[in-house]
Amino acid sequence: MRAVIKNLPGLSPVLLSFGFAEAIGVKLELIRAGEFMMGSTKSEIDQVLKEDSNAKREYYDDEHPRKQVRITQPFLLASHEVTVGQFRKFIEDTGHKTTAESDGEGGWGWNETTGKFEGRSLKCNWRTTGFHQTENHPVVNVTWHDAVAFCKWLSGKDGRTFRLPTEAEWEYSCRAGTTTRYHNGDNSESLVRVGNVQDASAKAK
User: Fold this and answer.
1) Taken in order 48, 117, 131, 78, is the CA torsion positive or negative?
2) Model confidence over 117-171: pLDDT tens digits?
3) How far apart are CA 31 and CA 44, in angstroms?
C-alpha cells in the first residue's frame, strides 16, 4: 500500500511543504506529467506463461493490447510502502479494525511448522504474520478498505488530500520512463535485486 497526494496544479508550495506525513516517515516523490505505453505485449505475456506453469492466459486479458496513457497532472507518490509503524500510528489513533480482524475470516500468514503460507486464518492479521517484521517493514494483511481508511486518516492529520494511486499512475511511476519488460530490464531473474519477489531460496524453503 502506498499513498499518493492528489494532482498538484501549479505545484503549490503548500502541497510541497513538510507536513504530518513526512513527520511519520512518509517520503513523497514528485511524479511529473507525461505519457507512457501501459500494459504488456503479446510476446511478454507469452514469456510469462513459458516461465510460470501456474499462470493462465486469461489472467492477462486486461494487459493486452498495450495502450498509450497520458498523465495530465503531476502528483506526489510515497516512495515506499506504508510501514508497520506508520500503520500502527493510524490504528492507535483511530481504533480502526482491519478487515482481517473484523470479518470473521482473518488473513494470510506463514506457518513455520509446515513451511507454507496459509489462510485465511483468524490468527493472521497485520500484527501477526508468522514471519518476523520490524516497524520499518511494509504492512501486510490489509485490504483496499483498510488502505482507504489510512489515507483518510492521513489526510485529516496532514491537511493535504491523500488517496491510493490509480493503476495508470502506479505503472507510470514504477516504469520511470523505461520500456523494457520490467522497469529494471527484460530478465525476470534480476527482479530479486530490486523488488520483494520470491527467488530460488524462498522456493526451496
Assistant:
1) positive
2) 899 999 999 999 999 999 999 999 999 999 999 999 999 999 999 999 999 999 9
3) 26
What is residue 185's DSSP assignment?
B
Greatest CA separation for the chain = 55
Taking the alpha carbons at both ends of the chain, their separation in whole angstroms is 26
Q: What is the mean pLDDT of residues 84-112?
A: 97
Please choose, from the candidates 2, 5, 3, the residue with its C-alpha nearest in 3D space to the C-alpha of residue 159: 5
Gap between the Cα atoms of 188 and 198, Å rounded: 11
Please state, in angstroms and rounded to a whole number, the distance separating the CA atoms of residues 47 and 163.
34
Show Cβ contacts of residue 62 under 8 Å, excluding neighbours closer than 6 positions. 39
**The residue to which cell 489513533 is assigned:** 93
d(CA 172, CA 177): 8
Please tell me the predicted confidence (pLDDT) of residue 52.
81
pTM over 0.90: no
Give the number of other CB atoms < 10 A from CB of residue 147.
Answer: 19
The closest alpha carbon to 101, from 84, 129, 123, belongs to 123
d(CA 194, CA 189): 11
Statement: residue 69 has pLDDT above 70:
yes
Above 50 in pLDDT, residue 15? no
Q: Look up cell 520500456; give the residue.
A: 179
Handedness of CA 120, 125, 128, 133 (dihedral sign): positive
